[in-house]
Design brief:
Radius of gyration: 21 Å
Strand order of the largest sheet: 2-3-1-5-4
Largest sheet: 5 strands, antiparallel
Shape: globular
Distance between the termini: 37 Å
Structural class: alpha/beta
Number of helices: 13
Bound molecules: thiamine diphosphate
CATH class of the largest domain: Alpha Beta
Low-confidence stretches: 1-75
CATH superfamily of the largest domain: Thiamin diphosphate (ThDP)-binding fold, Pyr/PP domains
């Protein structure tokens, strides 16, 4: 059985209801379909097709198991069709993400320390945020009305720094000074030293609280800027995180977006074994969040999720993104051992060769 979505219809179809996540979208049950959509709708195409155009209305068909849940990737994929980025834009993001990953490897190798695993799992997110989502100005990093990003899982600073360098906040060559004495790029983000860093973090659980406070402050000041924060799935074992979530809902912080990097691993192994945070999305919904669950390595899904976030009014938004720790470097992928360890010279050479090959492939697309 299929569900039928009607996007931006001139008149809301009878017996339809407003989707609880996408304003302007109406949901019809397939049993109601014949009555409102008319048989002619179906003549032009097979029932299995996901998009049908009829009378200037785009009908989007999605499987029954997903049609009541706007947080699923299937629905986000449908939303994405409305806001699709160009192929070239996506290619540029993919290329930049490769460079961000290279920056992580360069930095941790040069420092002989640092956290590559969780930096690589979030590399696509960092790329998307700094290249597309955040309203920031690298030539004026302290611009008052900028969007804020708080890296609550502060140990993944190498990923943040690599993205900031790509966005032009400081030269890429600075990445080689990671964790060196006198460098502005220390092991955890420092808002007083590093251009583009909005909050000093590293003690897990605290960044999200600061971010929620920033969002409330922006509301009080009548500013339209938004606040984003990235948490680890191990980090959300901290009780303080849930106090911040409660706060965000209580103050209806619809300018606040929490992103959970669900790479499934923390310092000691699988989060599910250490202290299970699952089901993450359901818990966030119970705390009053609107939630999108996506693949955090898919730029279309990232775009769709952030589009929904920006359109959400009256409550905070959360993105639970499934990722792979160590993504992009074969021997680091899904290995807890690469949480906080730097590659040696041989491992560095292999990682860089792999990432350069990925970049070449993207550029040849
Ligand atoms: C309050 C606090 N306790 C412990 C640590 C040490 N620590 C650093 S990273 C980490 C694991 C975090 O796992 P996760 O949040 O899943 O991060 P990711 O896998 O994305 O790197 C721990 C326990 C810390 N930084 N802060």
């Amino acid at each position: 059985m299929m569900g039928l979505w009607v996007r931006f219809p001139p008149v809301a179809p009878r017996r339809s209801k407003r989707c609880h996540a996408c304003s302007g979208v109406f949901l019809l049950r397939s049993s109601e379909m014949g009555k409102t959509a008319t048989r002619r709708t179906w003549r032009g195409g097979k029932r299995s097709e996901r998009f049908l155009h009829f009378a200037k209305v785009c009908f989007i068909i999605i499987p029954k198991e997903t049609w009541q849940d706007c947080s699923t990737a299937a629905v986000l994929n449908n939303c994405e069709k409305e806001h699709a980025m160009t192929t070239n834009e996506k290619k540029q993001l993919m290329a930049t993400a490769c460079k961000v990953r290279m920056g992580v490897i360069e930095g941790t190798h040069a420092a002989k320390a640092g956290h590559p695993g969780g930096s690589l799992s979030a590399a696509d997110l960092f790329t998307y945020l700094y290249c597309k989502e955040l309203n920031v100005d690298p030539s004026n990093p302290k611009w008052e009305d900028r969007d804020r990003f708080v890296l609550s899982k502060g140990h993944t600073a190498p990923g943040l720094y690599a993205a900031l360098a790509q966005r032009g906040f400081f030269p890429e060559s600075d990445l080689l000074t990671l964790r060196h004495i006198g460098s502005h790029l220390q092991g955890h983000p420092n808002m007083n030293e590093t251009p583009g860093v909005d909050m000093s973090t590293g003690s897990l659980g605290q960044g999200v609280s600061a971010a929620a406070g920033m969002a409330l402050a922006a509301k009080y000041q009548g500013k339209s800027c938004r606040v984003y924060t990235l948490l680890g799935d191990g980090e959300i074992q901290e009780g303080q995180v849930w106090e911040a979530f409660m706060f965000a809902h209580h103050y209806k912080l619809d300018n606040f977006c929490a992103i959970i990097d669900n790479n499934g691993l923390q310092i000691d192994g699988r989060v599910a074994d250490v202290m299970s945070p699952y089901p993450i999305a359901e818990k966030l919904r119970a705390f009053g969040f609107r939630v999108a669950e996506i693949d955090g390595h898919d730029f279309d899904q990232l775009e769709a999720a952030f589009t929904l976030a920006r359109g959400t009014k009256g409550c905070p938004f959360a993105i639970v993104m499934k990722t792979t720790k160590g993504k992009g470097v074969s021997y680091m992928e899904d290995q807890a051992g690469w949480h906080g360890k730097a590659p040696n010279d041989e491992e560095y050479a292999q990682a860089m060769a792999e990432l350069k090959a990925q970049l070449a492939e993207v550029e040849g697309m």
